[in-house]
Every structure is written in C-alpha cells, then in structure tokens.
Specification:
The complex is a heterodimer of chains A (556) and B (319).
Chain A: H1 7-18, H2 20-40, H3 52-72, H4 75-87, H5 89-94, H6 100-120, H7 123-131, H8 137-165, H9 169-184, H10 189-194, H11 199-211, H12 213-220, H13 224-229, H14 236-257, H15 260-263, H16 281-291, H17 308-316, H18 322-345, H19 352-385, H20 387-392, H21 398-419, H22 421-430, H23 435-461, H24 466-481, H25 483-489, H26 497-505, H27 508-515, H28 529-553
Helix pairs in contact in A: 1-6, 2-3, 2-6, 2-7, 3-7, 3-8, 4-8, 4-9, 6-8, 8-9, 8-12, 8-14, 9-24, 11-14, 12-14, 17-21, 18-19, 18-21, 18-22, 19-21, 19-23, 19-24, 21-23, 21-28, 23-24, 23-27, 23-28, 25-26
Chain B: E1 6-15, E2 18-28, E3 33-37, H1 44-51, E4 59-64, E5 67-68, H2 73-79, E6 80-83, H3 95-105, H4 110-123, H5 139-151, E7 157-161, H6 169-184, E8 188-192, H7 196-202, E9 205-210, E10 213-219, H8 220-227, E11 231-237, H9 243-253, E12 261-263, E13 268-273, H10 277-289, E14 294-300, H11 304-311
Parallel strand pairs in B: 3-8, 3-9, 6-7, 7-8
Antiparallel strand pairs in B: 1-2, 1-4, 4-5, 9-10, 11-13, 11-14, 12-13
Helix pairs in contact in B: 3-4, 4-5, 8-11
The chains are: A mainly alpha (556), B alpha/beta (319).
Chain lengths: 556, 319
Amino acid sequence: MSFLENPILRRELFSRLRSPKTFLAIVLVAVLSSLLVLLRWPSDATVDLVSQGAMQVFRPVAFALAVALMMLIPAFPATALVSERRRGTLALMLNSPTTPWQIYLGKFSGNVLLAFVILSVSLPALAACYAMGGISIVDHLGPLMLVLFGMAVQYTAVGLWVSSIVNTSDAGLRWTYAVVLALAVLSIGPTIFVGKLSGFNSLLAHWATAISPISALQSITGSQAQASEIGISTTWPNFLGASLIITVLLALVTVKRLDPRRLERARPTGKVIGRSKPTNRYAGWFRRVSYLVDPQRAKSNIPWWLNPVMVKEFRTRKFGRLHWLIRLISVSGVVSLLLTVVAATGTVSWGVERIAPTMVLLQVALLLLLGPCLGANLIAAEVESGGWELLRASPISPLRIMIGKLMSTIWTLLLMLLATLPGYIVMGYIQPAMSGQVGNVVISLVIAVFMVTTMSACISAFCRTTAVATATSYAILLSIFAGTLLVWVARGKPFGPLFVERALLLNPAAAALAEMKTPGFAQYRLTPDGWYIGIGISVFCLAVLGLRIWQLTRPK
Amino acid sequence: MSDHVVETKGLSKSYGDFKALDDLSIYVDRGQILGFIGPNGAGKTTTIKILVGLSRPTSGSAFISGVNCSENASKIKRLVGYMPDRFGSYDNMRVHEYLDFFGAIFGINRRDRRKRIADVMELTETTYMQDKFVESLSHGMQQRVGIARTLLHNPEVLILDEPANGLDPKARIDMRQLLLRLAGEGKTLIVTSHILPELARICDTVAIVSGGKTRAFGPLDEVMRSLCPLRSYEVQLVVPEQMGQAESILRKTLRESEPLTVSTTERVLRFPTVRSEDELARVLQGLVAGDILVSQFREVASDLEDAFLSISAPGLSKT
C-alpha cells in the first residue's frame, strides 16, 4: 500500500477538510495574517534602505502564524485516537490488516497536510512582506516555513500521544494544550528565570530552549539581541532538530500504545471505606491527613440546604474534583505566602511591587487553566452523557439547575483566590499604603472569576459535546485575557494608547496589574470602567445562559 | 374525569410537514402493563415524551391520573417515573450517590431519602452494588439502577423505554419478573421494546403504532385475534414412511389458499387456515381414515411478532 493509498490518511484528510471548523481555522489564519500586514504597512513614502519596515511587518506576521498554529493544530490530533477508541472504531481498525504504524501515520500525515493547507492561506501576506524588500526566501521566509512545519509536526505528535493515553476527548484537549504550552513557553523558563547556568545544567537549559519555537522565531525575525539579553541563543536549526527528536520519540511511544492488549482497560469499580468497616477508621484518618480529603470515604446524603446539582458537580466532574481542588488551593496558599515572605525578607532583590504582579499573573493563569474547563463541562457534559434528559424529567427548576451549576465553578475559583489572600494581607502589612490597591486587585480578580464562569457556561449551553465546548471556551477566553495583552505588547506601533487602553478594559487581569502599578500598565486607568465592562459581560452571559437553560428544559 | 390512569385522546405531533404522531388514542388502567410496539420512527418516543411532559402535542391531549401532561408538566414529573433508552450516567459517581442525587432533585427529604434508597435498592436487588461507580456497571446492572431511580419518588406510573434492550437472557428474565412485581404492587407501566416475545409475556394490553398512527390497540389476545386471523396448524406423524401418503390426503382436502409445507426430518406437515373447529376435525378424520398414525394435530400459536409483522408490512406506514 502506497502512502497516499492509506485509507486512514484519506479519511482523516477529507473529513477534516469537510469540517466547518477547518474552514473557520483557514479563514481565521487568512484574516489574521492579512490584517497584520495591513496594520503594520508603512504609511510614509520614505525609502527603507535598511529593510526595517519590512521586518516590522514580517515579525508580527511570523509570531501570529506561530500562535495560530499552536492554537489550531493540536486540537484535531488531541481527540483523534481517544474518540476512535470510545466509538469502538479503533478496535475495528486494529482488527483489520492495517498495522498500528499505518493507523498512526495516516492520522499524523492527515493532520500535517491540514497544517499545510492552513499555512498556505498565509502565503499572500508573506508575499507582501517579501515584496517590500529586505526579506529573503533563504534567510527569512524559508526558515519560517520550516519552523512552522516543525511546530505542526511536533504538536501533532504530542496530540496523538496524549490522545492515546486519556479516556475522554476533553481530557485529550486539555492535556495536549498543557503539554504544548509547556514545550513552547515553559521550556525557556529555566534560562530566563534561573539566569546564567554552567556545565551540564547550561547544556540542558540550552536544549530546553531549543524545544520552544520562540527562540527560533526570534533568530529568523532578527530579534537575536533581545533573545541574547535573556540568555537564549538557540537558532531555528536547533528547533528543527529538537522537533524531530521529540516527534520520533512520541511516535514510537504512541504506536506502542496502539497494541490492542494495552487498550483493554478494566473499568474501575470504585472502593469505599468507612461504610461497614469501622476497623478502617484509622486508615481513613491517615489518608485524610495525608491527602487532606479522603476520596474513598462514603459520602453522606445531600442535605436540604445544599443545591443537589452543585453537590453532584463537585462529586462527578472529570476535571477538578473536590479532593484535588482542596490540594490545589492549599498549594496556592503556601505559594502566595512563600512569595510574600521572599519579598519581606529581601533574600532576593524582588520587592512587593514585583511580587504582587507575579501573584496576579499566577492567579489569572490558574483561573484560565481551571475556569474554562470547569465551565465548559457544566451543560455540554450533561447533554452528552444523557443526564440532561433525566434533569428535564425531574421537577427541579431551570433556575436551580443554573445556580447549582454556576456555583460549583464559582466556589471553586473563589476558593482558589481566597487561598492567596494571606499573601496579599502580609503584603498590606509590609506596605500599608497598598491596602487600597490590594482591595481593588481582589475586586478585579473576583470579576474575572465571574466572567470566566459565565462565559464558559454560556458557551457550554450551546455545544453538544464537551470537547467542542472546552476548545471554544479556551479559545474565546484566551483571546480576551491573552489577546488583549498581545495588543498591549504592540503598544506604540501599530496600536495607539487609546486603542490599547480600550482593549485592556476588557481584561480584568489587566485592571489588576494596572492597580498594582505594574511597569507598562501604570499609565492606564482601567478601574472602575473595566469593572463595569466585566460585570456587564458577566450579566449578559448570565442572561443568555438563563434563557438557554430555560429553553433546554421546557417541553419541546 | 376518566378512570384510566394513563389516557391519550387524539394525540398528534408534527415537526413542520412531518407528522410524527397522528390521532393516537390509547389508555392504560391501574396495575396494568401496556406494551408499546412499533418500528423505528413509529412515534413511540414522541408519545412517551409527551406523556412525561418533555414535549407538547400539536393537538389532542394526554392525561396521567387526570392531570393534563402538557398543561401541568411539573405535577406530571412527580406522577411519572421515566427511564429513557439512554442510561444517563455520571463519571465518578457511586450507585448510592447517584440515587441520592436524584432523590434530592425530586425534593425527598434526607431522612426519607435514606430509607427510600434502601427500599428501592432492595426491590430492584441492587443493594450489593451501592458502592460501585455507575459507569463501571454492566448494561443489565445499569438498567436495574435506572429502574431504582424511577421508583425513588414512588410514582404511580412507570414509563420505560426499551428496558430489556441489550440484556442477556438471565437479566431479561430478572427484568421481566421485576416489572411483573411492580405491576403487582399497583404501578401502571408503559414499556416499549423490540423484543416482542418478552413483551408478550408481561403485557396486559398492547398498542402497535406505525407511521405515527395506532394500528392496533387492546388486550393482547384480542389484538392477536384481530391481526392474525389465519391460524397455523401442524400434523405430526408417528411413522416417517407415511409422510407421502399423508401429504396426498391433505392436498386433496386443503384449498389453494392453504399452502402445505412438509418437513420430513421433523415428520411434520403444516398449513395455515381459516377453517372452523368442525372443518378441522374433518381434516383429522380424513387422515385417520387413511390409516395414518397421527401423534399430534395442533394449532401453532401466533405470537406478537406475527402481529407486528402483519402491521408493519412495507407500504403500510405510508397509508
């Protein structure tokens, strides 16, 4: 069987190309790349002898394409194997003469070819950069395409690997994006934050930065000087080498996992301790001390004063179950206190003014990691599992369903914020003048919690599957929280201060950073207008959600 | 007000030009089991959804214990226990927690709920699986838990969509006994199933729908008589060598509309007929007069499948 005759490749590619999501992705990349060229196109008639103008157009286009690929490419492979397994079609394929390698390569190459299609629509924008002069095919456009290809290959391999491990499509999406984020962004962390390393550690940190496309893109777009400042010295060939190694390793592991015997998993039947065996009381006590919450303890009946839907959400959700949340909240509390102690003792030259933004960013990162996923599960998961039909057939009111579902997420996220309050209190004690600012930061973050929850729940109410709801929630919320920060990054050129301020008004995290007088944010007045916008968005989403839940519960 | 526990009067439901239900009128009395039969897309689920208050009819009305299903949906939800064809499982939830959740959303207070859960688990024989995760249960176990869930708020009427679907023979027998026990306790049941012999064993009344219309409705034996007037008879011989002789005697006696089939290996001759008992006695007399040694001369009972097939013949649904 020749490569192009691989039935899995043909099916994957054609089904992807027929999908409206692919069409949307293609349109998005085409619009984004063209828009960036238009925004950065020089307006003066001066001859650009040193090709700075072309580079100023080329640089954002290159980074935007990389970000778009990072967001779009992992989505398909992240669910490719797990959805086949859940539908039972993977077993059918493995039961045919098709080998695990053919299955893998079919899915892998289908996705990489799709990346080519998506990238091809950016060619007019890149051609415009080339036409400006100063951008060469050999030094810029060719390497950029190779790096983007390397990213597509690497992230497809990551998606397929994660998809072969997880049990649900939304878990596949969540973990794939987490791994992609770790590979692309966190891998440069050691070099930036730990500073200059020596010996073997230096070599490790160097190769870790090679995993990330950031250094490769910087070397292509002529930002080596900035990269060197923060200790990054890898180039695009290093990235391609690292991508190849990661792809091959992940391919080997994934194909190994496609062994039918390994796919057979016994369904966990659960084990409860404490219902009828009093002798296990001490073991249960030990587990509770060790893990804070004992998940094996027999649950008591739901009391009248608790919303049953909320309790059910806490007990059953796939991601963010109560025992894990309490542990996470404890860790958040300890980290915030440690950061504040570091600021107070002055062992590191970080003052409160540097610790506070770090804490805000950490909180927002946690909020964005947990919030969309919890919110996106609320309605879509219930519809997908068939539980919604049972709720509809019960006398519980739509309002009580909505309150129960929203509160299960809001409590979780607020608890996470509360965990970091001790840090802020200590901060206020160190610098009493900051108490008002801390109050405003807390208000901004609480608004962020409501925004994240209501928006993702609203999206969830319009989706039939959890995977789609999760991906859409992440995409929209990241556009608001990270997208507006990208606008802030491009302040001065092309975006003027008024435009940047208006964009930042949408982002409660930016309001919190501005309140803390974070460098770069101090000049913007984002409160209280930003709060009103955040509250307005939340109220609007809440109203839409309420209407949708009423629509979903009423007789058809 | 009617005495029937469940009653539909001229129930119709349209989706645009498509008529899912057309003038459906049926009723069920207390303690009875109604078998609701029809091919896929016949309108069974539409009817059920109207009865449980999840859908509104385009015209006509449906009542449960005198309560209008479309006008008082919240009251209906307390009167009916509904088990859809999909189980509706939650991850990481144990059977006891699952029942507790549904008890809570039906507003049963904590103390009563505890007792009620124990009772329904005992009735459905699910007590031993109370600490297992619901998603880890086999299909048969999940169906039992599903019935336990429908019984939690002690409804008068149970509406079960395909409860025997996918069950093994043992689980099917258990399910049948459970449904009969519930009917014995005075519950009114509406059961849909594609496994017609199963329904025939438990139903008092059947309603056969096709293309949204009621094709037959009434007590099981009446429906059978009206739908299957052609009775099937078989003659079993003692001596296999007499098969040819018996065949020629029967061929002389039977009409063209009574085609004879011969199974030599079974020593059996079969024919369908509309003859009266007297006429059939004369057929037997002819065989005996011809010195044929007959071991059995009996009617082969028509089953619900025959009735169903006679109703859902191709083209009928379009009429």
